[in-house]
């Protein structure tokens, strides 16, 4: 289960950390109205538990530190946040990680990567050597999901990366993570929209056998966003290069949650891909077990039924809002939904 870290205060102080408290949201009921496509807007079920978006109280940094979370810094710049249960392991590697217990004008409070690691390669090698040792000892459960895929480490997307780290270890440090999600949809001659939904393989390391977007994946170190989106579409749904020229960037969502793997601040780049009615996705990498073509009402039912991987449910909710399947007057919570899918992660670490 997720513990939400979402903040609805866009102008909250940059040193705020949202609460670790588990929470859920409710989707209010709406009367059936007509959207701009001429079809009925979705009748959302009253008080449905939706385990993705709900405001928990904003917690100032002092409160987070009182719980024992430690800022993680590289070159005296915060790039992550380490839970105390993971610090009990990292502190056994003092040649790599040093705890500076008080800000003194030259170094900030927190766990610092050893300053002897002066460049990208040295930092990457030092951290991954620790992770490989912990993995060999089976000391940290999250590392059992080792991917042999690295993520870039930086405090915001525009910053030059300081190192790269094994994907499965990102949550141990609370590193910002990025990915791409593609809404593959069709439109019938009468204007009805349907969405291709994938069911994750039963052997997936995370959220097996749950509904997913047609294509999605993490953004590996050194890969561009559009290249990543095209790669995921080819690998997960066998989309042709010609159809991929229709990929349309439509926005981003961001959220911060916690699970047994650690702290997970994530931002997703979202694409819409309108597909011909005769297209059928075919998985090529073994990560999807099957695909289904759902109406908007069917997709809504699966969302509120809790059958989606939570962030994929949010991507679908974003699609429904953007394409006019909510009525502003009938559902007063639309602005709430939108706020909860846009946590200000790019300004969280300084």
Automatic annotation (TrEMBL):
Residues 175-316 form the Nudix hydrolase domain. GO terms for molecular function: 8-oxo-dGDP phosphatase activity. Keywords: Hydrolase. PROSITE patterns: NUDIX. It comes from the Eukaryota. This is Nudix hydrolase 20, chloroplastic.
């Amino acid at each position: 289960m997720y513990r939400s870290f979402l903040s609805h205060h866009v102008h909250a102080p940059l040193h705020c950390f949202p609460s670790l408290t588990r929470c859920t949201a409710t989707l209010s009921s709406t009367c059936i109205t007509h959207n701009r496509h001429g079809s009925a807007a979705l009748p959302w079920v009253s008080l449905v538990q939706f385990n993705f978006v709900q405001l928990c109280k904003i917690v100032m940094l002092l409160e987070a530190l009182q719980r024992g979370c430690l800022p993680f810094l590289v070159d005296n710049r915060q790039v992550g946040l380490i839970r105390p249960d993971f610090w009990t392991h990292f502190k056994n590697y003092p040649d790599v990680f040093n705890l500076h217990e008080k800000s003194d004008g030259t170094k900030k409070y927190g766990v610092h990567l050893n300053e002897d690691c002066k460049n990208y390669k040295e930092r990457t090698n030092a951290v991954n050597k620790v992770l490989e040792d912990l993995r060999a000892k089976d000391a940290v459960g999250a590392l059992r999901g080792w991917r042999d895929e690295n993520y870039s480490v930086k405090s915001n997307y525009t910053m030059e990366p300081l190192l790269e780290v094994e994907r499965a270890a990102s949550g141990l440090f609370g590193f910002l993570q990025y990915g791409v999600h593609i809404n593959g949809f069709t439109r019938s001659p009468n204007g009805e929209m349907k969405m291709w939904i994938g069911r994750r393989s039963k052997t997936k390391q995370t959220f097996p056998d749950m509904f997913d977007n047609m294509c999605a994946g993490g953004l590996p170190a050194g890969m561009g966003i559009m290249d990543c989106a095209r790669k995921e579409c080819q690998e997960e749904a066998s989309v042709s290069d010609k159809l991929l020229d229709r990929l349309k960037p439509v926005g981003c969502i961001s959220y911060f949650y916690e699970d047994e793997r650690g702290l997970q601040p994530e931002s997703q780049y979202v694409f819409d891909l309108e597909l011909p009615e005769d297209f059928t996705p075919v998985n090529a990498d073994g990560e999807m077990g099957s695909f289904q073509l759902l109406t908007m009402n069917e997709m809504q039912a699966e969302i509120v039924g809790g059958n989606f991987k939570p962030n994929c449910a949010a991507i679908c909710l974003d699609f429904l809002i953007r394409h006019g399947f909510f009525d502003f007057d009938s559902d007063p919570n639309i602005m709430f939904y939108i706020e909860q899918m846009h946590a200000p992660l790019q300004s969280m670490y300084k």
